[in-house]
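PROTEIN DESIGN WORKSHEET
SECTION A - STRUCTURE
LENGTH: 252
TOKENS:
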């Protein structure tokens, strides 16, 4: 006798969630994520993601074993609380001198198509020379795709030796940007790569980069988060999501 009221109550409770998180527009996949509960979006699930890292709590979250490499004297702090971009903590990656710290995800099942999302902020987004931001690697640790931040704050995406550079609003100093990347392995010089940029969690309709001349042919098994030579601050990462499909609008 009590089944109907309970079901009705559940529907009422779910409606705001559906409203807040349902994707609009023509995005290929709605992926919500994940790992912490945030205002306006009650999703706390990482289900369906190869990597779902929000850096909450001590160390890395979601039971993921990331590794950290600091060649000389930089800083990698997965418990950083400097104006966190989502939740209470984020990853701080700060090189010093000519240092290039890198955080490496656990290996995941290789895929010839990979979508990823992350929040990114750099104290100095116009480095003296272009530097790695994010890279995707194959089973042999070879780079198959990577993002550079250029000296003018624009982003260049490499797919093997094929590449394209954004021409829209550059990344601004100390300002968070959401980045969505997409990789499809090619068979020669036909690999597909895309980049979307937004100041908020809503994935834009149009790509900042839409390339189809990539030369990488391998499956992706690892994502790495880099810092460029930045003695005055560092780069920050949060809400790192990796999927076998293109990722759409994410939770705030
Ligand atoms: Ca976080
Ligand atoms: Ca943490």
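SECTION B - SEQUENCE
RESIDUE ASSIGNMENT:
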């Amino acid at each position: 006798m009590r089944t109907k009221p309970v079901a009705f109550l559940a529907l009422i409770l779910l409606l705001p969630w559906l409203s807040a998180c349902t994707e609009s527009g023509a995005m290929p996949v709605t992926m919500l994520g994940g790992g912490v509960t945030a205002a306006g979006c009650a999703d706390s699930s990482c289900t369906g993601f190869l990597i779902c890292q929000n850096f909450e709590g001590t160390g890395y979250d979601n039971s993921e074993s990331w590794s950290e490499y600091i060649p000389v004297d930089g800083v990698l702090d997965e418990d950083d609380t400097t104006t966190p971009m989502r939740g209470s903590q984020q990853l701080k990656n700060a090189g010093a001198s000519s240092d290039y710290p890198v955080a490496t995800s656990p290996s995941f099942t290789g895929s010839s198509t990979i979508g990823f999302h992350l929040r990114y902020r750099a104290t100095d987004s116009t480095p003296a020379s272009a530097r790695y931001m994010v890279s995707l690697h194959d089973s042999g640790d070879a780079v198959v795709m990577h993002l550079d931040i250029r000296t003018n704050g624009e982003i260049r995406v490499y797919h093997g030796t094929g590449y394209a550079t954004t021409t829209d609003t550059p990344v601004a100093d100390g300002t968070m940007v959401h980045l969505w990347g997409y990789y499809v392995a090619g068979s020669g010089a036909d690999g597909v790569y895309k980049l979307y940029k937004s100041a908020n969690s809503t994935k834009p309709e149009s790509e900042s980069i839409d390339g189809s001349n990539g030369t990488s042919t391998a499956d992706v098994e690892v994502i790495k988060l880099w810092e460029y030579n930045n003695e005055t601050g560092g780069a920050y990462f949060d809400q790192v999501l990796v999927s076998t499909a293109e990722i759409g609008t994410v939770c705030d």
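SECTION C - NOTES
The pocket of calcium ion (ligand 1) is lined by residues 54-56, 84, 86-87, 89-90, 238 (CB under 6 Å).
The first strand starts at residue 51 and ends at 53.
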